[in-house]
Amino acid sequence: MRPNRLLVLAACVATALTGCGQQPEGEPVIRTEIGSGVAENDSEPAPAAEPSPTPAPAIASACESTTFEGAALTHCVADPARHRIVTALGPADGAPYRGFAAFAARRAADAAPVAFAMNGGMYDGEGKPIGYYVENGNRLKELNRADGPGNFHLKPNGVFYGTGGKWQIRTADDFYANVADRPQFGTQSGPMLVIDGKLHPKIAEDGPSKAVRNGVGIDAAGRAHFVISEEPISFGVLARYFRDQLKTPDALFLDGNVSALWDPARKRMDSGSRFGPMLVVEEKD
User: Fold this and answer.
1) What tens digit of pLDDT does each residue of 99-117 get?
2) E strand spans, the chain
């Protein structure tokens, strides 16, 4: 995950966007400016020795394969009528899981079945969130409204959060101004992809930066649409899929290059990258 200092200096010279000084503390470690033409850095591979999860019960997949503008995508739907969403970072007595297998191995035998899960927000070199993060009603990280380089700081960024079956996405400034009660779950990432039905103003139609990317959007019926690309795509393609195909008024970029999906029903568990926070969609009892 963590690039060495020579790679950081080389990226600074190539982009001339952030200067060649030391990166500020708390900055996301695997990100690129939209349209810069500089791809996300290669992620640190996940440990090969992670324990295998307990086999999931046979349930229908909430995910489907699709294409948009020639790009292969996987689209998963969380429905408040049958699903709950929780965040997961790590056990209370240890470091972040950094992958689905470690998370699955620590789940209680009587835990609700997992419909699917995705990585959900940007993080530091230890896998800890760099923005707002709430798990089981406990705030582990405050809202981050700081300026800085990288996708996370490409304003407006946003927060995906919810309590019970009401899930929402707001820009960070909107969240700060209007949300007083702490939600049951929340994660901050950036940039926003769609804001009030319009694309993020700095997203190019099809910029040169391509990566495997994932995001989440909320439709008018309150369902959460999670999307991950199966091939490197631009921000523009992902954003238009949310706006034009899924009709989500608001959508949030979750990550790029380390994007991963766990879909137990289809026996898929991506394990090629180490990441931080997870968004876990569970079947209701």
Assistant:
1) 999 999 999 999 999 999 9
2) 63-68, 71-78, 83-88, 114-119, 133-135, 138-141, 158-163, 166-171, 185-189, 192-195, 198-199, 213-218, 224-229, 250-256, 261-263, 268-269, 278-283
